[in-house]
Amino acid sequence: MEETNIKSTAKEAIKVSLDGEFNHKDFFHEENSRVNLYIWENFKKNILEHARPVSAQKVIYLRSRDLDKNISDAAIVEDFKVRLMDLNEGLWILSELILRQSNGQSGDLTIGNPFEGDLMKHKINLFYFQVEGSLVVVRVYWTPGDGEWCLDAWPPEGLGAANFGRRVFSLD
Prior knowledge:
Blueprint: E1 7-8, E2 14-22, H1 24-27, E3 37-39, H2 41-46, E4 54-66, E5 71-72, H3 73-79, E6 85-86, H4 87-100, E7 125-131, E8 134-143, E9 148-154, E10 161-162, E11 167-171
Parallel strand pairs: 3-9, 6-7, 7-11
Antiparallel strand pairs: 1-4, 2-4, 4-11, 5-10, 7-8, 8-9
């Protein structure tokens, strides 16, 4: 087994309230007037094509960890004991977290340019969704130059090891 050495962030549990109805089509599109989004085709194909409207009235708690070395998604899920998010509730949670940091301000999602400079400073958020019986990794990152949140998704074998410096989210 791969040694992971995942370190914990100093944050408390992240609280997200889901109250009412949520339709992914109202939020996850590039003409969204509340937040700038760039949605990669693989997010549309692997996530949005399978999503459905959802209603709920509950509070969800998340935990997050920062990776301090390269590690595969399979090892993250196993060693971090990731609880997969339901696709539709996961999208709702993701929309709430993005709205809290709509202009790239500090918050629960890690921010910074994920593709420039020192690899130790790559700032990418990883979420693990259950999509029709399969695990799909959702990657969310802020690009300060474009002022937008980018979203993509892939099966865990599709990208390889996650770079250190990334933040992993799971249901608490």
